[in-house]
Amino acid sequence: MLQQSTSTECVKSASTEYINRVHQQSTSTEYINRVHQQSTSTEYINRVHQQ
Predict the structure, then answer these.
(1) Structural domain of residue 40, as residue ranges?
(2) Within a domain: residue 25?
(3) 1-51: per-residue pLDDT in tens?
(4) Residue 10: partners with Cβ closer than 8 Å, 6 or more residues away
(5) Distance (Å) of CA 10 to CA 6, 14, 28, 37, 38
């Protein structure tokens, strides 16, 4: 289903597993955090709430 539809909606609701398959080269936490704002990693929260 994801492969057939390449719309932004699909990208927004893409799961971490999908990204890992497509972007095996970039498996850094920073990249995942930027794409998946839902992630509650400490690093992401600290960056957002530095102010």
Answers:
(1) 8-48
(2) yes
(3) 455 555 555 555 557 777 667 666 555 666 666 776 655 667 767 777 775
(4) 2
(5) 6, 6, 21, 15, 15
Q: What is the pTM of this model?
A: 0.18
Maximum Cα interatomic distance, the chain, rounded to a whole number of Å: 41
Q: By three-state DSSP, how is residue 48 classified? A: helix
CB contact at 8 A, 29 and 19: no
| Tokens read off for 37 | 């704002």
Q: Is residue 40 part of a domain?
A: yes
Q: Within a domain: residue 15?
A: yes
